[in-house]
C-alpha cells in the first residue's frame, strides 16, 4: 500500500483496487450521507471524554465524515476504509458522510465543507490528503476530531490523531511466509509483480526479498515492474513470464490487476499473497497468504475508541506487527508447521528481538 506504502503519498494509488472484499454495498464517489436507523440504546446520547466524544460538537447527533483520494467503490483498499466507517456507524446509529476521488488540491476545501455539515469526526482515507489538515486549526472545524493515516512526513499537531505503521515489518513478514512456502517445496525462486518503479514499490520488494532470504538465504526473487497497478493484461503477461522462469511463489503487489494475475498463478500451482486484506476465504482467485494492512482495520479500532470517548488528539498511534491485531500475516490453508514458524517470527518482531529495517538493509539488495 510506500516508504510507508499504506499511508504514504503513493500508498493509496498503489492499492487502488486490490482483491475484492466481502463487505456491504457500494457508494458514490460524490459526497453522500448515510443515516443509520436509530437503535435501542443509541450511543449518540452524551459523550465519554472531556472533548465530548462521540458527539463532539454537542448537537445531539454523531456525524462521521470520510474523505478519500481514491475510488470508494474499488472493492479493495479505499473501499475497506469507507465500509468500516459505514458498518460501525450503522451499529451505533450514527450518520456517515463520505466522499471519494478527492483531488489533493481540493482536500482543504473538502474538509471545510465537511465541518460546515457539523461532522464530529473527519477521517482521511490516506495521507495524500494531508493538505486538508490545516482546516483542523480553523474556526469552522473547531469542534471536530481528526483521524489521519500518516507517513513520517506529516507533523503531529494537537488537533489530530495520527495512525502509523512500518512497511518494513509487514513486507518482511510477507517475504518470510513466502520463504517458508519455498522451503516446503525445496525451491529457491520467488516472484514479485507490481506497477510503477517508484520508491514505495522498490522499498516493498526489498523488504519482501529480505524476508525470503531469512528462510532461504540463496533464494532468487524475480521482480517485474509493469508500470501500471491496475492493468490486468500487463499483470497477466508478467505473471506468465515469471511462471515460465520457474517461480513457485509470487506476490502480486498490485491494485485492480491483482485478481487477474492471481488466477493465472492459481492455474499454474504457484503460491500467491494478498496486498492488504484477508482473502483466505476467497476461492476464485485463491490466495495462500493474506498480508493484512488494510486502512479499514486500523480505522475500526479508532472508531471503537471514539465511541468510548477515548480517541486522543495530539497523539500518534504506531501499529506494531506481533503486538497489535494489525498489521499481520495470515497463512491460508492447513499448514500447521509453517503457521507455527510464521507466528513465532511475528512475535519476535513484536518483542524487538531484531530490527526489521536492519534486516531489509542487510538482505534486501
What is the CA-CA span between the terminal residues?
A: 20 Å
Strand content: 15-25%
Based on the coordinates given, report the CATH architecture of the largest domain.
3-Layer(aba) Sandwich
Catalogue the unreliable spans: 1-50
Q: Work out the count of structural domains.
A: 2
Structural class: alpha/beta
Task: Please trace the helix and strand order, writing H or E for each element.
Answer: HEEHEHEEEHEHEHEHEEHEEHH
In CATH terms, the superfamily of the largest domain is Response regulator
Q: Can you tell me the CATH topology of the largest domain? A: Rossmann fold
Shape: elongated
Order of adjacent strands in the largest pleated sheet: 1-3-2-4-5-6-12
InterPro entries: BMP_lipoprotein (IPR050957), Peripla_BP_I (IPR028082), PnrA-like (IPR003760)
Membrane topology: Lipid-anchor
Domain ABC transporter substrate-binding protein PnrA-like: 61-324
Keywords: Cell membrane, Lipoprotein, Membrane, Signal
Amino acid at each position: 500500500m510506500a516508504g510507508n506504502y499504506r499511508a504514504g503519498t503513493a500508498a493509496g494509488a498503489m492499492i487502488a483496487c486490490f482483491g475484492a472484499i466481502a463487505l456491504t454495498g457500494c457508494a458514490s464517489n460524490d459526497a453522500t450521507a448515510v443515516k443509520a436507523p436509530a437503535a435501542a440504546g443509541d450511543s449518540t446520547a452524551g459523550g465519554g471524554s472531556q472533548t465530548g466524544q462521540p458527539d463532539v460538537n454537542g448537537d445531539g447527533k454523531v456525524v462521521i465524515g470520510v474523505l478519500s483520494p481514491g475510488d470508494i467503490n474499488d472493492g479493495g483498499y479505499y473501499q475497506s476504509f469507507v465500509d468500516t466507517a459505514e458498518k460501525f456507524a450503522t451499529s451505533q446509529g450514527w450518520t456517515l458522510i463520505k466522499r471519494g476521488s478527492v483531488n489533493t488540491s481540493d482536500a482543504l476545501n473538502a474538509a471545510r465543507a465537511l465541518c460546515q455539515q457539523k461532522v464530529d469526526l473527519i477521517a482521511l482515507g490516506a495521507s495524500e490528503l494531508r493538505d486538508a489538515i490545516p482546516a483542523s486549526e480553523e474556526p469552522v472545524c473547531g469542534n471536530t476530531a481528526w483521524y489521519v493515516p500518516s507517513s513520517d512526513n506529516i507533523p503531529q499537531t494537537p488537533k489530530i490523531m495520527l495512525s502509523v505503521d512500518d512497511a518494513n515489518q509487514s513486507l518482511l513478514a510477507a517475504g518470510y511466509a513466502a520463504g517458508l512456502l519455498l522451503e516446503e517445496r525445496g525451491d529457491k525462486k520467488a516472484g514479485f509483480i507490481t506497477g510503477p518503479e517508484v520508491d514505495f514499490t522498490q522499498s516493498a520488494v526489498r523488504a519482501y526479498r529480505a524476508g525470503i532470504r531469512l528462510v532461504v538465504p540463496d533464494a532468487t526473487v524475480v521482480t517485474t515492474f509493469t508500470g501500471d497497478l491496475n492493468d490486468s493484461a500487463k499483470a497477466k503477461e508478467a505473471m506468465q513470464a515469471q511462471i515460465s522462469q520457474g517461480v513457485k511463489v509470487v506476490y502480486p503487489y498490485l491494485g485492480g490487476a491483482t485478481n487477474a494475475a492471481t488466477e493465472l498463478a492459481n492455474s499454474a500451482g504457484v503460491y500467491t499473497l494478498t496486498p492488504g486484506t484477508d482473502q483466505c476465504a476467497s476461492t476464485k482467485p485463491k490466495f495462500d497468504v493474506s498480508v493484512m494492512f488494510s486502512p479499514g482495520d486500523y480505522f475500526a479500532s479508532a472508531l471503537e475508541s471514539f465511541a468510548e470517548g477515548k480517541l486522543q488528539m495530539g497523539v500518534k498511534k504506531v501499529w506494531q506487527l506481533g503486538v497489535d491485531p494489525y498489521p499481520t500475516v495470515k497463512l491460508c490453508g492447513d499448514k500447521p508447521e509453517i503457521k507455527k514458524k510464521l507466528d513465532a517470527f511475528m512475535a519476535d518482531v513484536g518483542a524487538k528481538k531484531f530490527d526489521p529495517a536492519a534486516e531489509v538493509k542487510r538482505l534486501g539488495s
